[in-house]
Amino acid sequence: MMVEDVNYLTPEGKIELEQELHRLKEYDRPALAAKLKEAVAMGDLKENADYHDTREKMSLMDGKILRLETVLRDAIVVENDGTSDMVRIGSKVTIREVGEDEDEVFMIVGQAEANSLEGKISSKSPIGAGLLNRKKGDKIKVETPNGTITLKIKKIK
User: Residue-wise pLDDT tens for the chain (157 aa)?
Assistant: First the structure.
């Protein structure tokens, strides 16, 4: 496995993915299997939209289960033991875009647990990659889909 392909997880991220996998395998998939069994019992599968829809959903769910199992099997769990003077995976970083009035706080995580709505950005995203291994006070230029921005690191936790 190449270093770039390593999937990092925070301990919290690992727990969340394990819980999601458990839910999918123990509850969601069996419910879909029961629904599929009911659709088969209706007969004529060729024109049974419920059967085809359920089979497609099951296929997508099986793919998601396989992806989660692979991520959890191959991931490296990164412990964040508190304040650091350098941004790393698991760090909560307070930044401010130069010219703006408000700070933003992001947690740097591996791709599998990235969720922008929760303020968790991937270490491989433009901002995440730009912040890695930087220190408080550093200014960095980042290429984003909306153009180049300059960020200043205000705090690392």
Answer: 334 567 899 999 999 999 999 999 999 999 999 988 888 887 777 777 888 888 999 999 999 999 999 999 999 998 877 667 899 999 999 999 999 999 999 999 999 999 989 999 999 999 999 999 999 999 999 998 889 999 999 999 8
Q: Read off the pTM.
A: 0.79
CATH of 92-156, one of 3.10.50.30, 3.40.50.300, 1.20.1250.20, 3.90.226.10: 3.10.50.30
Give Cβ neighbours of residue 24 (< 8 Å, ≥ 6 apart): 61, 64, 65, 68
Rounded CA gap, 73 and 105, in Å? Answer: 30
